[in-house]
Amino acid sequence: MAQVPMVGAREVLPELDILPPQRQRRWTVLLRVLLVIPQYIAMAVLGIAGWVVMVIAWFGALALGRLPVWCAEFLGGCLRYATRVTSYLFLLVDTYPPFQWSPQHHPVSVQLAPGRLNRAAVLFRFILYIPAAFMTAFLGVGWTILAVFFWLTVLILGRMPRPVFDATAAVLRYTMRAQAYLMMLTSAYPKWLFGDRALVAPDPDWQQPVPPRPSSTRPLLLSPGGRALLIVIIVLGVLGYIWQNIGSAVLQNRDLDTDGTPDQIQVVATLWGYHPALNGSVAVAPDTLPF
Predict the structure, then answer these.
(1) Tens digits of residue pLDDT in 237-266
(2) Domain count along the chain
(3) At 174, which helix (H) or strand (E)?
(4) pLDDT score for 214
(5) In a domain, 284, yes or no
């Protein structure tokens, strides 16, 4: 397993390695959502098993101060698989994710180094995760709002422009790190959303670990366009998330139209992903990782 940068004396940040942007086949871009359906069925099954293992892992981490080895291996495999599928859905790569636990020569890889865990942080893990959960929700909603534009751009050009690649990779890496923290695969809280320029070591002898192969995301250095686009994604995500909540609140209290015509608020809220069957919950953009 490749080395990953250390955060403090005991924390290790998970790392995402993606090969530099390549040409993509337009027919796979056109049908990307359909092609990924079998993968999401597999992810749903793994997600059910993943939640069960997470409960066992939580008790194990409280008792041992670390994840049981088999829990770490299973949850790490789930996270890697889900990240490969998401990178394909997000148009970062054109290589179809194989139905394998540890595929060889895939353009996307995740480096994990589970270690010792603070028992207090494990006990309150779900509470501590709340800020990261909001950020991942904002990123998911914002990226989803722009998804059609990204899809059309890649479909026309046959490749993903660098700013779009940078912003999308930043979204995927932060989400992966947040999920790794939730699954107790790391004690490091997710950080460096805007890239690794802030990773400046005070020790002059410290060196950035070299990835085992060419990587566009280690270190993740956002272009000016990618940084600006990431800000747009966050702003749109916050506004979209707020709008969803306002829409759901209005829907719960609205009166039925006397003329029987569809309520405009109902239409708008439906466009934002809300449905009354959710019993008042808000359907944010689907979390790309099913755990």
Answers:
(1) 999 988 887 776 666 666 444 444 445 444
(2) 1
(3) helix 162-182
(4) 63
(5) no
